[in-house]
Amino acid sequence: MSFPTVVVPVFNALAELDACLASLTRTLPRDVPVLIADDASSDPQVATLARAWCERSGGQARYVRREVNLGFPANCNAAFAETGDADVVLFNSDAVATPGWLAQIVRCAASDARIATITPWSNNAEICSFPRFLENNPAPAPADADRLAEAAASLPVHEYPELPTAVGFCMFVRRAALRQVGGFDAATFGRGYGEENDFCRRVAAMGWRNVLCDGAYVVHAGNASFGPLGQGPGGENLQRLLARWPDYHELVARFILADPLRPLRDRLAERLLQIERGGPQRDLFG
Description:
Blueprint: E1 5-10, H1 14-27, E2 34-38, H2 44-57, E3 61-65, H3 72-82, E4 88-91, E5 95-96, H4 101-110, E6 115-121, H5 142-153, E7 170-173, H6 175-181, H7 186-189, H8 195-205, E8 209-217, E9 219-220, H9 235-244, H10 248-258, H11 262-276
Parallel strand pairs: 1-2, 1-4, 2-3, 6-8
Antiparallel strand pairs: 4-7, 5-9, 6-7
Family: Belongs to the glycosyltransferase 2 family.
Domain Glycosyltransferase 2-like: 5-181
Pfam families: Glycos_transf_2 (PF00535)
């Protein structure tokens, strides 16, 4: 199995980065390339932590630090350039991996060469949230998150349904799509928020697909990612997104009204109960 490069964009947030890297240590095969892209963090402990992690991880892990703070879109674009011809997964430092997550995403990508972006299930991923749609569900405890990942991976069929946009906390990006449409529009979206939504609409306009990997689950502990509704810091960026894609809100609203992921959420919940059956019944998500 050929793996993409996992890119971890970083700006401060030491505790979140520590948890993120620990989860990658636990869940990634040692031959998976990892690039930690530090956008000139002001906390010197970030570099210390990242360099030490790369040393422990062997030759497939690298740490780069920007000389000046570029903002999230430009930092990611630089990372795209630094990863050669590989597909990439942007894995935010406030995300926590579960066993098998990357293998499931790779299988999803292999199912259709026209898939440009992939987003897994998460507790906090807007349209890809589980168990409650569009909510910031509480992050499950580590053992419960692993059990949920097991449930998703063990479903007999994975559908990889279409999404109007990826959710950027954990986002596979195919290199061929990057070559065709370019990276994030840092000139328009500046410090960040809206760049991945714009990218997804650009690739969709060229015939690419943005999909959910319904076989993978990744915990999203924070609120750093820009959700598909465009709600977050930087209201001007939302207006820039809508100026370029006037039908964006309607597209997402129609998706929400139709809720095509509901049968998949129900199926995952049922599978999770099957795995839990025989033990004490409890609410894994609060």
